[in-house]
Amino acid sequence: MNKFLLPVLLALTVLVTSAPQPARAESLATTAERKVFYQFSPKRVDPIRTDKRLSEVIYEGLVLWVAKPKKGKPTVMYLPGSGGNLHSRGHKFRWFLNRGYGLVAMAYPGMGGSKGQPSRQKIQNLADKLYRDIPEMTGSKQIILMGESLGTGVAVAIAAGKPGHANPPSAIILQAPYTSLVDLTAAKNPTLLPFVAGRTDLWPSKRYIQNVKAPTFIMHGERDNTVPFRMGKRLYELSPAKNKVLAARAKAGHTSIWQKNVRQPLREWLEAIHGK
After folding, report:
1. Which whole-number Å values give the CA distances from 40 to 84, 108, 213, in the listed order?
2. C-alpha–C-alpha distance, residues 32 and 224, integer Å
3. Do the bridges between strand 62-67 and strand 55-59 make them parallel or antiparallel, or are there none, so unpaired?
4. Positive/negative CA dihedral, 156, 250, 191, 7
5. Rounded distance between C-alpha atoms, residue 140 and residue 92, angstroms
6. Counts for the chain of helices (H) and strands (E), in that order
7. Where are the alpha helices (DSSP H) in 38-106?
8. CA–CA distance from 136 to each of 62, 104, 154, 156, 168 (Å)?
9. How far, CA to CA in Å, does 88 sit from each of 1, 124, 270?
10. Helix or strand run (H / E) with residue 106
């Protein structure tokens, strides 16, 4: 959440509370949601610049980066965070590809060439549909859900919802997850709470994760200044999964958590589930 947006958001608050028509208020609330939570880069990059094994697929107006898995390996459905584009995650994509996993990385509406404007409902609906279509797209029914920051809420919602019940993920990886976007707003900038305080749909992972039994790996830096570490720890505590790991790292921040001391235990954990 950008502090420079505050004057605009305060003005929107006045408009939302004074608007005479509910439809108008709803529209302004959606505009506020976009400005607060989604800082996507619209820059479109050819995936070949990241890795020749990747190709671009257009799906429901979205840009996807796709690579099929090696025989017998699952596909990673990658749900990114709120900043940048798919190209800025290229090093993580290569890590999975080098181990034989397939990849379907989703650029949200407004990110990296994808059409449309982002909203919680649009992002989740498209992600749910894509999850159901991945087996046909890559030839692998097994799916690993990988959520990063903003994408952790999307991933947990897929696993807890109808798509995950129909085809449970073989594993879930959550990087710097939040308990809900309302909780995150309260923790980081309570001035913005008027925009979201009544929203029960803003990825309440603390509720959804209680219905997710798939193996779960949570990585979170204790120096994370974007999503407080206590939120990742709380999700770990609430998870009913028999196979769950909290990879807490005392010196890591929000983006610096993806280091060798996390990648190595993640690799071993995935191999124990899916084989080498």
Report:
1. 5, 8, 31
2. 25
3. antiparallel
4. negative
5. 20
6. 11, 10
7. 90-97
8. 17, 12, 21, 22, 16
9. 19, 22, 23
10. strand 102-106
Residues making up the chain, counted from first to last: 276
Distance between CA atoms of 107 and 123, rounded to whole angstroms?
10
Which of 54, 53, 76, 60 is CA-nearest to residue 130? 60
In terms of CATH architecture, what is 44-274?
3-Layer(aba) Sandwich (3.40)
Q: What angle do CA 268, 269, 272 make, to 5 degrees?
A: 85
Q: Looking at this protein, which amino acid is placed at residue 100?
A: G
Domain ranges of the chain: 1-37, 44-274
DSSP E strand stretches across 162-228 = 171-175, 216-221
* Cβ neighbour number for residue 155 with a 10 Å cutoff: 30
pTM: 0.89
- Pairing relation of β-strands 216-221 and 102-106? unpaired
Which of 13-27, 105-119, 227-241 has the least mean pLDDT?
A: 13-27
pLDDT at 19 over 80: no
Alpha carbon distance 240, 172 (integer Å): 13
Tokens, residue 33 = 């949601």
Q: Is the pLDDT of residue 233 over 50?
A: yes
Distance between CA 139 and CA 144 in Å, rounded? Answer: 14
Calculate the CA dihedral of residues 13, 16, 17, 23 and round it to 10 degrees. Answer: -170
Tokens 């449309």 belong to residue: 116
Predicted confidence (pLDDT) per residue in 57-110, tens digit: 999 999 999 999 999 999 999 999 998 999 999 999 999 999 999 999 999 999
Angle between helices 22-37 and 6-18 (to 10 degrees): 160
DSSP per-residue codes, 72-88: T--EEEEE--SEE-GGG
